[in-house]
Amino acid sequence: MLDVKNLYCERDDRVLFRQLAFSLTEGQATRIQGSNGSGKTTLLRILCGLNTEYEGEIFWQGSPVETVRSDFRNGIFYLGHAPAINKSLSPLENLRWFCASRGIREAMSIPRALSELGLQGYEEVPCYMMSAGQQRRVSLARMKLVNARVWIMDEPFTALDKRGVTELEEILASFVKSGGALLLTTHHPLQLECPLDVIDLDQRAGRGSVS
Amino acid sequence: MSVATTLGLGAVMMATVRRELLLAVRSPGDIINPLMFFVISVTLFPLGGGAESNFLSSIASGVIWVTALLAIMFSMDSLFRADYEDGSLEQLLMSPQPLYFLLLAKVFSHWLIACLPIVLLAPVFAAMLAMPDQAMVPLVLSLLVGTPTLCLLGAIGMALTVGLSRSGLLLAVLILPLYIPVLVFGTGMVEAAQGGLPYAGLLALLGAILILAISLSPLAIAAALRISVN
Questions:
Q1: ipTM higher than threshold 0.90
Q2: Cβ within 8 Å of residue B166, ≥6 positions away
Q3: Chain segment B49-93, per-residue pLDDT in tens
């Protein structure tokens, strides 16, 4: 679905990766590995179109992403470091706007998505009154609402408790089994019951300075 | 996976306006602060310049317009700051919906929250500055048509500086020069009315500037935001 060819990125005179090529295909999870500062987040943001300081080509279903922007944005879901949750609003209000901003008619799916993430009873509670883990769950509930076939997730397990981690692993595995493509970074020992690829940025990096 | 049928553009914009208004209700400072700034600054002029009514009425249109303009500029900070910090801005930029209309809805809500109260309250303070009655309607009209342009231009500057931790003065340096045409035509219109002259032409000019701002500035805001999150 998403093909990356010959990707090159440098930051502060340091090559993060060069000649990086991989494909995200249906029913496949891919994990990006690398030490702190190796460019994991940068890579994810490049794929999402948030970072444009790179060289190389990214294809969405065979066409360059620049030519199929709207289609591409419909097809991917990005979970970043920041929760993208406004703390003055309740989970319900946050997700309602998230759905609307993506043009999704939410129907009655938001309360269900929240309860699947273990937040039943918290729908109307302002997010600033919730713990970090609960806010993370609100953020994660968005993946239940979008119709994206590619999920790009940056450290999705942060702040989750043990049960939350297991539940999220189950959700991710069932998403991949249903034909989704998953790309994630995590420092957590992953136990996904689905095919898992690993991209190691430490090995791909041109260490040292740009000459 | 949920059943996702798509919403129309109008509904998307309405949802955005609803969210912004809800946020303003939750943190009323966004409504009250610009208004209080306006009220206090306007009050300072008679205190500092003397309360003689001839003098006051000669500076009234300028005072009202300049303080309204500064209040709007200072209010811009709340437009993208929170969204930038909590990551909502990234999600907004990745929305499959046209960013142009999402941003237009956002700026429009900001105008409702921060500017409309000032526009509505302006005649009271114009009366305090001894502005003649025949200039009141033109004053409100000029602000009504002029302030949305100020919001749109301010949003460009804010979008460019939202990534910086302290952007206040830089924002002023960036966007105050852009405010000059609106200020000139706005005060010119009120002064014309004060002098008993026709002002429809100047109102039309302000309207033309607004239409230009509506059609072009969302594109600039979008481009600036993409640079800021990069």
A1: no
A2: none
A3: 888 888 888 899 999 999 999 999 999 988 998 899 998 999 999
- Two tokens at B76? 């811009």
Q: DSSP letter for A209, please.
A: B
Residue pair B33/B75 in contact by the 8 Å Cβ criterion: yes
Minimum CA–CA partner of B2 in chain A = A145
Helix ranges (DSSP H) in chain B: 9-26, 29-49, 53-75, 77-86, 88-93, 99-110, 116-128, 136-161, 168-194, 200-229
Q: Are strands A181-185 and A28-33 parallel, antiparallel or unpaired?
A: parallel
Tell the burial category of B116 from Cβ atoms under 10 Å away from its Cβ (0-12, 13-18, 19+): middle
> Taking phi first (over 0 means left), then psi (-120 to 50 degrees means alpha), and beta for anything else, what does residue A189 get?
beta
Q: How far apart are CA B51 and CA B44, in angstroms?
A: 11
**Alpha carbon of A181 to those of A42, A150, A185: distances in Å?**
19, 5, 14
CB neighbours of B185 closer than 8 A, spacing ≥ 6?
B142, B146, B202, B205, B206, B209
Integer Cα distance of B106 and B98 in angstroms: 13
Between A and B, how many residue pairs show a Cβ–Cβ distance under 8 A? Answer: 112
- The 8-class DSSP code of residue B198 comes to -
Asked if residues A137 and A119 have their Cβ atoms less than 8 Å apart, the reply is yes
Per-residue pLDDT tens digits for A158-203: 888 888 888 889 889 889 989 889 998 888 887 777 778 888 887 7
Q: Which of B21, B85, B93, B94 to mutate to test the interface with A (most CBs of A within 10 A)?
A: B94
